[in-house]
Give the backbone structure.
Amino acid sequence: MGAFKVVFDQTIPYIDPDYRSIYLNITGEASVSCADREGSESDVQFVQTMIIAAIQEQISKYSNEFVSHKDLPAKANVMGQTVAAELGARNITLNDFSITNIAPDEKSAERISQLEKTRAFAAMTPQEQMKAMEEANKKAQESLSQLSAEQRRQAEEQAKKIMEQQAAEMQKIMEQINQMKGAAAETTVAAGVSATTSAFKPAQPAVKRFCSNCGAPRGNGKFCSKCGKPL
């Protein structure tokens, strides 16, 4: 029987209830034993693939259940049980399992931090917002004053670029919102016009039937009631 360790490090997409689409970096290690595997490179890779697949399956369930990524570290034991079951189905025994890190990757962490700052700013009163902006501007000016002319120019260009990107993204979002509102309005108007047309559609006048010989009303019979000619 072979016994060996497996280290895993995987980035997995996750839908967080507070931050929507993010990526989680999950790292850890496991110790396994197997009667028909000695721990060769291919054995380690095989078990590593199974462990990652089992973790991804469990993470996907938590995502569908709207579990915050902040609560996932506390669920490491459940993930370990899922991994043990998957490996056990292949006659591989999980002797030890630990997850050393479950956290958003660098880009996701940066986006989360920005969202938290935006939410905190939005929750402030107008007076608090003004004060925060003044303090931020003061710190920015102090930082710029410590830079050389070239560094200041580069910093200003970078800040300008970031502001332009943010403005472009905001403009795109507003255009999408306006398009959605416009489509909804057109649908509502069209439905209203259709309903109005149906409600006020004039009734078609009944076609009058007359005898072609004498002009008397034809009635429902096969012969004219006045002149007796066939209708």
